[in-house]
Amino acid sequence: MCHRCHKDGKILKHKPKYIKKALHHNGEVPLSLKQIFIMKLYQLLQSYDFNELYPELALMFPPARKQKDRIRKLYEELIAIPPVESKKSIRYELMHDPDTEEEFYGADDSCFASPWGVIMGKEVKKEQNVDLSEAEIAANCLLNIMLIGYAPKRLNIEVNNLRNT
């Protein structure tokens, strides 16, 4: 057992800023950094009914509690959009907020800075140490798409109203 990756039989936790470069000294990726492929985002969102995702979404974004109908409408519009194949992925990992020094599980905002159809075609992956359910990931993706993604023009008023709450 390698002392650089293991201590007392346990896998050492690597800091997020080292994730891309944190290879085992023999070139292998440590077990704690392997990614688990979930599915394409459109498949993930279509596998849940809005009423299954809404409670998680409302916990993540409290203003959503007063905008359930608007969010439902946007969700229905979103899952009807044909996905655009993308080689990029949405990767959930342990992240660090430099302002508050808090660590949390999430995906980089840049994963959602695209048109909705492109985001829907991305693969969703999570690192093995991420303790989020698929429903939590789906709700977080839905929220990030609505708050960050580039909505179709016909939905701009609805999306802007949600973003300005």
Top keywords for this entry?
16% strand, 6 strands, 165 residues, 4-stranded mixed β-sheet, 35% helix, globular, alpha+beta
Question: Mind sketching the topology for me?
Answer:
Layout: E1 6-7, E2 10-11, E3 35-40, H1 41-46, H2 50-60, H3 68-80, E4 89-96, E5 103-106, H4 116-120, E6 123-127, H5 134-148, H6 156-163
Parallel strand pairs: 4-6
Antiparallel strand pairs: 1-2, 3-6, 4-5
Helix pairs in contact: 2-5
Question: Can you tell me about this structure?
Answer:
The chain is an alpha+beta fold and 165 residues long. The protein has a domain at 36-130. 35% of the residues lie in helices and 16% in strands. It has six helices and six strands; from the N terminus they run βββαααββαβαα. The protein has helices at 41-46, 50-60, 68-80, 116-120, 134-148, 156-163, and strands spanning 6-7, 10-11, 35-40, 89-96, 103-106, 123-127. A hairpin with a 2-residue loop joins strand 1 and strand 2 (10-11).
Summed up, the helix count is 6
Low-confidence segments: 1-27, 29-33
Please give the largest β-sheet: 4 strands, mixed
- Termini separation comes to 52 Å
Query: What is the total tally of β strands?
Result: 6
Gyration radius over CA: 18 Å
Strand content: 15-25%
Strands ordered across the widest β-sheet: 3-6-4-5
Classify the helix fraction into a percent range. 25-40%
The 3D shape can be described as globular
Structural class per helix/strand content? alpha+beta
Element order: H for helix, E for strand: EEEHHHEEHEHH
- Report the mean per-residue pLDDT as an integer: 82
